[in-house]
Design a protein that fits this description.
Blueprint lengths: L6 H18 L5 E4 L5 E7 L2 E7 L6 E6 L19 H6 L3 E5 L8 H19 L4 E7 L1 H12 L6 E5 L6 H13 L13 H6 L7 H11 L1
Parallel strand pairs: 4-5, 4-6, 6-7
Antiparallel strand pairs: 1-2, 2-3, 3-5
Helix pairs in contact: 3-4
Length: 218
């Protein structure tokens, strides 16, 4: 007689299996401990580079940083966007963690998955933070708000900075709107800029990009 697991049990089983594989597989992690006792960890999980910073006197709060929109992310540090604020956070004993995501561009779904995988990895290696706050800027603001919304038990709060909280469609529509609307310097109607057609993954001759232009010309 076959046993059929309920969907929620099957979902937990699959999630646990994937996490176990990730945790047991080599993540190419490089651990560095400073003279002051702070720990820096860099590696890759599921194709997503990550960085973890844990001060020696960690106060128990983890800031899970989500970076903004990035088309050419190779070679970047996952915490690049926090370049100026990072020393302050570490000096005040906040731990930081960030994933560079496994795909560039509008990688919202990948960001949710990769950030939660990183959080699980950190908890497995260093223990559960007393509080975890999802923080991010621009596209990362959307990701940070989504993380707290999708996984409420895992987060104490969220801080979206200039977050794209009006939906991706609304935000992408702003680009063509600005390009075709008359402005003080150029009163004429201009075609949608190539940057925005690239942002949504289409070319100038593509039906979707042509539709964007025609919708504003009508």
């Amino acid at each position: 007689m076959k046993t059929i697991l309920p969907f929620n049990q099957l979902s937990r089983l699959l999630t646990g299996t994937v996490l176990l594989v990730l945790l047991l597989s080599p993540s190419r992690a490089v651990h560095t401990v400073s003279a002051a006792g702070s720990t820096t960890v860099r590696g890759s999980l599921g194709g997503a580079p990550y960085q973890i910073e844990i001060p020696a006197g960690w106060n128990g709060t983890l800031l899970l940083w989500s970076h903004g929109y990035c088309l050419r992310c190779a070679g970047r540090s996952p915490l690049d966007d926090l370049d100026h604020a990072q020393p302050w956070f570490l000096a005040h004993d906040y731990a930081l963690a960030a994933s560079l995501y496994s795909r560039p561009g509008w990688a919202v779904a990948e960001a949710f998955h990769d950030q939660m995988t990183l959080l699980d990895f950190l908890v497995h290696r260093y223990g559960t933070p007393r509080r975890t706050i999802a923080v991010g800027g621009s596209l990362g603001g959307l990701v940070s708000a989504g993380l707290a919304q999708l996984f409420p038990p895992r987060f104490s709060g969220a801080l979206p900075i200039c977050g794209i909280l009006g939906s991706g469609v609304g935000t992408l529509n702003q680009g063509p709107d600005r390009e075709v609307a008359p402005g003080p310097a150029d009163p004429g109607i201009r075609p949608a800029h190539a940057h925005w057609t690239r942002a949504i993954g289409v070319g100038r001759g593509d039906a979707r990009s042509t539709g964007l232009v025609r919708s504003h010309e009508s």
